[in-house]
């Protein structure tokens, strides 16, 4: 048991207490961040005259050795150490002796872990943004390839009005674009360096906090030392954003599961992204979508853990905050996996255009347009709505759609119908006449694609 704080204790820590307290099992993934932060700290300690040039060089060389030896497997991170910070410091002292004992001057593990976690999270946000951009690119190509793939649009899961697959996916593009924007916002807000806050009250050493912040690519040093060591808002914001990403993926999962069902048959999930049943030979299951939908609960749980851990903590650092890590890492890993695999599943998924088109042509998806036709003939909209309602009842009884009715049949209900009703309620007309910004027509979708491409070019 290598501890940094033995001095005031007269007894060995109980083994169970040691294990209960230790975080090395999960905080070892902060190793790179910890060493990067220490190098910046030590550069600054030398610049302000607290350690010598030689000591600095020895420490940095030692830290680099620890990093390369753990990477190569020569040095193992074991639970002999309480946490990653103890692991690094103990190994440094083993390697370079007394100079190593100066590294922690003017620093506490409280500001150190606050820095490590921010560095780690910053990198994770950057990687997550990349994953989202890949997903957005896949969605954009679905949009570009399906400008006239007709399908029913739904409300209440009932057929409503015809749209196109491109239009449907433009919604998901918007969701994930906003998710990407949210990550950019969070990154900007969290991008300040907490190092130099000490345990809570800063330090009497003449530290140059801005120098450290600059070396580590932060916008500056944080403004309040007590807040710096006890702030986990940025993690909560990030986990909220991750939860929203999962909510979006889960909605798309749900649609894919429905579209993949025997009743719908709108999509074919590629064989390499589906799974079978051990008993039913005919099965091809949408497990990726189902797992993603399921993992959404897990990520929400991580967010709730963090919110709950933080809710009763008095200023400043308290050990409760060590509990931020497993939840945060779990959410980061889970969402990265889901976004990555989802993009690949979408990329390989094919659509049954004929089935979707046929589906769009029944279920009275053109009823609104039929009413709008009557409005064009001078009938007030509310009356037109009533007339088409009667026609729907008539069609339902006779198992036909509006366009199957002869002009005579239609005229029995309203004498405003003419031959031009048929082209006015064709699937193509219903979609292509919807020219409003954000609508399903090819013209509106072209505008959308232009905007989407501009966003991805930024
Ligand atoms: N393992 C701790 C954490 O994750 C590091 C900070 C410990 N600080 C302390 N004073 N015990 O929060």
Shape, per Cα inertia axes: elongated
Give a list of the ligands.
arginine
The CATH superfamily of the largest domain appears as: Fumarase/aspartase (Central domain)
Mean pLDDT: 96
CATH architecture of the largest domain: Up-down Bundle
Q: Which percent range fits the helix content? A: 55-70%
Number of helix segments?
Answer: 19
The largest beta-sheet arranges its strands as 1-2
Molecular structure report:
The chain has helices at residues 15-21, 24-27, 31-47, 53-72, 84-96, 109-145, 165-190, 209-215, 225-230, 233-259, 287-310, 324-348, 353-361, 367-376, 381-397, 407-413, 421-424, 427-432, 442-457, and strands spanning 150-155, 158-164, 192-193, 220-221, 267-268, 350-351. The longest helix is centred in the first third of the chain and has 37 residues, at 109-145. It is elongated, with a radius of gyration of 31 Å. The protein has 3 domains: 6-105, Fumarase C, Chain B, domain 1, CATH 1.10.275.10; 110-197 and 223-358, Fumarase C, Chain A, domain 2; 361-457, Ribonucleotide Reductase Protein R1, domain 1 (Orthogonal Bundle). Helix 3 packs antiparallel against helix 4 and helix 7 packs parallel to helix 19 (442-457). The strands form 3 sheets. It has a two-stranded antiparallel ribbon with strand order 1-2. Strands 3-4 form a two-stranded parallel ribbon. A two-stranded antiparallel ribbon has the order 5-6. Strand 1 (150-155) and strand 2 form a beta hairpin. The chain is 62% helix and 5% strand. The two termini are 51 Å apart. The protein is mainly alpha-helical and 458 residues long. Residues 23, 27, 83, 109-110, 113, 319, 321-322 line the site of arginine. Arginine binds next to helix 6.
């Amino acid at each position: 048991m290598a501890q940094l704080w033995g001095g005031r204790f007269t007894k060995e820590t109980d083994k169970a207490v040691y294990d209960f307290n230790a975080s090395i099992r999960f905080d070892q993934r902060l190793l790179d961040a910890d060493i990067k932060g220490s190098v910046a700290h030590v550069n600054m300690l030398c610049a302000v005259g607290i350690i010598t040039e030689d000591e600095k060089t020895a420490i940095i060389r030692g830290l680099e050795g620890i990093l390369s030896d753990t990477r190569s497997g020569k040095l193992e991170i074991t639970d002999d150490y309480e946490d990653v910070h103890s692991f690094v410091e103990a190994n440094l002292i083993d390697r370079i002796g007394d100079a190593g004992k100066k590294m922690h001057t003017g620093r506490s593990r409280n500001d150190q872990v606050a820095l490590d976690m921010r560095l780690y999270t910053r990198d994770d946000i950057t990687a997550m943004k990349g994953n989202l951009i890949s997903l957005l690119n896949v969605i954009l190509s679905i949009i570009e390839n399906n400008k006239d793939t007709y399908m029913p649009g739904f409300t209440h899961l009932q057929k409503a009005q015809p749209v196109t697959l491109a239009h449907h996916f433009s919604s998901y593009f918007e969701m994930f674009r906003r998710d990407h924007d949210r990550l950019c916002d969070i990154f900007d807000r969290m991008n300040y360096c907490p190092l130099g806050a000490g345990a809570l009250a800063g330090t009497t050493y003449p530290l140059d906090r801005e120098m450290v912040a600059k070396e580590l690519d932060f916008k500056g040093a944080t403004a309040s030392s007590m807040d710096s060591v006890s702030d986990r808002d940025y993690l909560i914001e990030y986990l909220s954003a991750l939860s929203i990403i999962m909510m979006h993926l889960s909605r798309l999962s749900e649609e894919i599961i429905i579209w993949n069902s025997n009743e719908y048959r709108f999509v074919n999930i590629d064989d390499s992204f589906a799974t079978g049943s051990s008993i039913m030979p005919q099965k091809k299951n949408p497990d990726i979508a189902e797992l993603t939908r399921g993992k959404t609960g897990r990520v929400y749980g991580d967010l709730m853990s963090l919110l709950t851990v933080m809710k009763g903590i008095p200023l400043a650092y308290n050990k409760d905050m060590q509990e931020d890590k497993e939840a945060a890492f779990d959410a980061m890993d889970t969402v990265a996996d889901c976004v990555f695999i989802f993009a690949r599943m979408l990329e390989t998924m094919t659509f049954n255009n004929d089935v979707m088109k046929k589906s769009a042509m029944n279920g009275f998806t053109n009823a609104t347009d039929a009413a709008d036709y009557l409005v064009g003939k001078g009938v007030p909209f509310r009356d037109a709505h009533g007339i088409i309602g009667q026609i729907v009842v008539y069609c339902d009884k006779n198992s036909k759609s509006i366009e199957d009715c002869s002009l005579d049949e239609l005229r029995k209900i309203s004498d405003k119908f003419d031959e031009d009703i048929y082209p006015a309620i064709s699937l193509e007309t219903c979609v292509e006449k919807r020219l409003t910004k954000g609508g399903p027509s090819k013209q509106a979708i072209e505008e959308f694609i232009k905007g989407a491409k501009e966003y991805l070019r930024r």
